[in-house]
Amino acid sequence: MVERGVDIAPANGKLGILLVGLGAVSTTFVAGVEAIRKGTSNPIGSLTQMGTIRLGKRTENRCPKIKDFVPLAGLDDIVFGAWDIFHDSAYEAALNAGVLEKSQVEDLREQLESLKPMAAVFEQNYVKRITGENIKTGKNKMELAEQLIADIARFKEEKGCDRLVMVWAASTEIFVTASAVHESLEAFEKGLYDDDANIAPSMIYAYAALKSKVPFANGAPNLSCDIPALTRLAEDNNVPICGKDFKTGQTLMKTIIAPGLKSRMLGLEGWYSTNILGNRDGEVLDDPESFKTKEESKLSVLEHILQPDVYPELYKDFAHVVRINYYPPRGDNKEGWDSIDIFGWLGYKMQIKIDFMCRDSILAAPLVLDLALFMDLAQRAGMKGVQEWLSFYFKAPQTAPELYPEHDLFIQLMKLKNTLRHLQGEDLITHLGLEYYD
Ligand SMILES: NC(=O)c1ccc[n+]([C@@H]2O[C@H](COP(=O)([O-])OP(=O)(O)OC[C@H]3O[C@@H](n4cnc5c(N)ncnc54)[C@H](O)[C@@H]3O)[C@@H](O)[C@H]2O)c1
Question: Best mutation site among 22, 124, 137, 171 for ligand 1, i.e. most ligand atoms within 8 A of its Cβ?
Answer without folding.
Answer: 171
